[in-house]
Amino acid sequence: MGMRRLALCSAESTNLFGLDREQLASFLEPFGVPSFHARQVYRWLYARRSFEPECWTDLPQPLRVAIAGAAVVDPGRVESRVEAGDDTVKYRVLLPRGDAVECVSMVQSSRSTLCLSSQVGCALACDFCLTGTMGLLRQLTPGEIAAQVALIAREGGLAGRPFNLVFMGMGEPLHNYDAVLAAIRLLADPDGFAVPPRRITLSTAGLAPAIERLGREPLRPRLAVSLNATTDELRDRLMPINRKYPLARLLAACDRFGAGTGERVTFEYVLLDGVNDTEQDVRRLGPLVRGRAAKLNLIPFNPVPGRLPYRSPSRERVLRIRDRLLATRVPVSIRWSRGAEVRAACGQLALLDPAAAPGTGRRAE
User: What CATH number corresponds to the domain at position 67?
Assistant: First the structure.
């Protein structure tokens, strides 16, 4: 291993965070070092979440110096955090390129769940989602997705503790398919973040061909599908993606996913007062779920006064809808809001000033 080769340095530094094993091996190849060093770097980045090459003590010291001179390890940083009273924390993560996303940590009993973003903004413009009002600003890279986990785990003291991951933050994950799946491989890898795939859930607005493609992946997350209407007419209005992939096409894709994987799909249904929670809607909803390899999650809408025109049904109404569905043998549960006081709840992430949130959350820079 000659010092001349170790002194190689690219004109523009590579960001190692987010690279997979093969990409790391390609980066190290010009240095003429044994291939096993790529595996060591991979573990430092993702299993140990160490971002300073000089600390990678099982690498030769000259190689650590060369890596530090030729590359950076930049997962971004937590720019701000806002805490709600229910142990929910909303993080604004500043990305290496200078823009930002929001992600959320939720603690319920002894279970921690991290809600991740896959895009800056979102192109799908669902009518009840604040993120959709941003439009799509750009796709995230695999490293920018995985970095949210590394940064929140460090900030939240989750090192060594199990946690769940849900792709339910900013963006449509299946609209950024390749990057999201690459990030999931890093996150699920036993030599990486070591999050079991059964602890990872991806939520989609209904990109039917991508759902079918996901079902053919050898390593895949659990699937949740945002349904939110029982007729094409209403779903066209609430979720414009339905005009391209209407309910029949979407449900067929979900059936193929279930048949090919043997896994249940979770249908998510955001309840909008007087819009999709009528008696007729409840009667139609049962047959859409019953008999499928699926379960149903009812989600009372999280209001954003002055920005979105919808309201949540009363708690009593939500419970009645659940009980009606249970009585017709529909497997159903309710996902009650968490973090709404600091706009950290489902559909509320949009990079707004945390100080403008309607609740009394505590902000810490």
Answer: 1.10.150.530
**Is 92 exposed, middle or buried, given 0-12, 13-18 or 19+ CB atoms closer than 10 A?**
middle
**63 and 189 belong to one structural domain:** no
**Cα angle: 322, vertex 328, 330; to 5 degrees:** 60
Rounded CA separation 332/266 (Å) = 10
CA distance linking residue 206 with residue 227, whole number of Å? 8
- Contact partners, residue 327, CB within 8 Å, separation at least 6: none
Range of the domain at 264: 77-364
Q: How far is CA 303 from CA 88, 102, 168, 364, in A?
A: 17, 18, 17, 24
SS3 37: helix
Alpha-carbon span 15 to 23, nearest angstrom = 11
316 annotated active-site: no
Q: Of 9, 54, 102, 129, which residue is the catalytic one?
A: 102
Number of structural domains in the chain: 2
- 129, 268, 346, 365: the active-site residue: 346
Residue partners of 77: CB distance under 8 A and separation at least 6: 93, 94, 151
Task: Kindly report, residue by residue over 70-128, the tens digit of the pLDDT.
Answer: 999 999 999 999 999 888 999 999 999 999 999 999 988 778 999 999 999 999 999 99
The pTM for the full model equals 0.92
> Is residue 102 annotated as part of the catalytic site, yes or no?
yes
On the 0-12 / 13-18 / 19+ scale of CB atoms within 10 A, 235 is buried
